[in-house]
Amino acid sequence: MARVCKITGKRPLTANNVSKANNKTKRKQLPNLQKKRYFIPELKKTVTLKLSTKAIKTIDRYGLLPYLNKKGMSLTDII
Predict the structure, then answer these.
(1) Residue 18: per-residue pLDDT
(2) CB 38 within 8 Å of CB 59
(3) CA atoms within 13 A on the CB side of 41
(4) What is d(CA 59, CA 36) in angstroms, rounded to the nearest whole number?
(5) Single pTM value for the model
(6) 17 near 29, Cβ under 8 Å?
(7) Looking at residue 46, what DSSP letter applies?
(8) Pure H helices in 1-79
């Protein structure tokens, strides 16, 4: 699976490691992605999503379906 959040779209960034001698080498800054299982009562199913921690906190606050509606997405977009 790619290192991309299913809802927010966060993906790896590129940056530089900078040594004491100011030598620069490329590196990746990976987003903090976690696998999280959610039960969807409308489908009577559990789905596993790869989400950023920011998306998990927001879903815990508002709920999965209201958050998807706010973002203009549906369940078929993330499953």
Answers:
(1) 97
(2) yes
(3) 3
(4) 11
(5) 0.82
(6) no
(7) E
(8) 53-62, 64-71, 75-78
Structure tokens at 3: 């290192």
Cβ neighbours of 52 (radius 10 Å): 20
71 in Cβ contact with 61 (< 8 Å)? no
At residue 21, the 3 state secondary structure works out as coil
- Amino acid identity, position 8: T
List of E strands, 19-71: 24-29, 33-40, 45-52
Q: How far is CA 34 from the centre of its chain?
A: 7
Amino acid residing at 51:
L
Q: Which amino acid is at 44?
A: K
- Walking along the chain (79 residues) 10 residues at a time, the average pLDDT comes out as 88 97 97 94 91 95 92 88
Q: Each residue of 61-76: b (16+ CB within 10 Å) or e? A: eeebbebbeeeeeeee
